Amino acid sequence: MPAAVGMTPLVVLGFLRVIVELDSRPARLAVGLIGLLFLLLVIAIVVSVPRTARLAVSSNRVELRGWFLRPRSFATQDVTTIVKARTSRTQVLLLDARGRRLLALNAPPWPRAGIDHVVDTIGAPIDLINTMAPKQLRTNYPGAVPFAYAHPLRFGILVNLAWIVLVIIVTVLVQL
Question: Which of 12, 113, 143, 153 qualifies as a FRET site for 36, CA 20 to 30 Å off?
Answer without folding.
Answer: 153
